[in-house]
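#data-curation
PF: Archiving a pair of folding outputs for the training set. Convention for this channel: one message per protein, sequence first, structure tokens after, nothing in between. First:
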Amino acid sequence: ELVSRLRRRLRALREERELVLGAARACAGRGEELAAALRGLCKPNELERYVTFIGDLEKVVSLLLCLSSRLARVQDAMRRIDGNTDAEERQSLDERHKLLSRQREDAKDLKENLDRRERVVAGILAKYLTEQQLHGYRHFVQLKTSLLIEQKDLEEQIKFFEEQLENLEKSIP
């Protein structure tokens, strides 16, 4: 019964992931439409700022999510340390934790810089777009970010349930 429930949950998560991926493709299409409209309005260097910002948005958000996920796994492993854990493994986990913590702080700095760049890009676009179009741009940026987060969360859940299912199936004689 538990195996059946895990399989149903995995199926539901995979279906949800497909919906999110479809929404992400639609969002990317809106981004392309916006870029195409801006090509005819902005100066080349201003368009380049927009395109670079959008590309960096995805990279920085993905980096932050990846580092946070890896850090959470290391912290989980550190919580499972007991008296039987050898000193070398403890030291390795501690070093990985410190490294990932530093990397995540660096990624947060990148995100703050990206937020400043977003305000600059919005200021540039405000010269060319109507208020409604500018609102559409802001919505696009927020949607892109939230879809990336949702996608990563679903991938993590799917991975977790796949591992649970695999472990459960191995434990059944």
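PF: Second:
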Amino acid sequence: LQEAAQKLKPSAPIKFHISSRTDTGVHALANAAHLDIQRPPGKAPFTAQQLVQGLNHHLKPEPIRILSAQRVPGTFHARFCALSRTYIYRLLLGCAHHSQIPVFERDLCWAPAGGPLDIPAMRAAAEFLLGTHDFSTFRSPSSENRSQSPVRTLLQLRIQPAPAALAHHYQHRELEFWEVKVKGRAFLYRQVRRMVGALVAVGQGKLSPQHIQELLELKDARAFPPYAMAPASGLFLKSVEY
């Protein structure tokens, strides 16, 4: 995106800031960013429409599109002014083998092995994660910024059925799409994927709901079960709220 903006021929290097960085393999339905564009003397500032069209023209080869643009005050910051971020993690249940994952859903969901999930147990476990906690256990031990506070506030954590966009085309009618909706102001590195993985482990009977509370209280990333890391493919940044 920064390279695309630079092709709009600004009079100074572009300063570009994105609201949320995502791991390789994680998707974004909608992200937010801000950038400062100085135009040469005598050139009028870009309108919102010109900016959207110009950036999208240079982004054609990339799997990214600008949906909208607007002028903001100089005090605005895409990352630090965000009130909350909402993520969706898509689960596909009912697959006896990974070959049963619909071709249009590959790399867009996680199909955990081992049969049906105990959704009520997962919801009971999710209650322990809601609110303000030290999420050290749910932070990746490879986190770059170890000085970052591990205290985070989880505003919402829902496990709910989700319709598949092409469900009426699928031959395997027993397939069920579920989503874990997570909302908070900010998250630790890989926190959402570790929380979802732990909840799925509860649904599989590998952990009990109370184990989630115990993991929180341990405040130690090394205590996190290595088998309970959800893959990147099912995670989507849904929205950033200001």
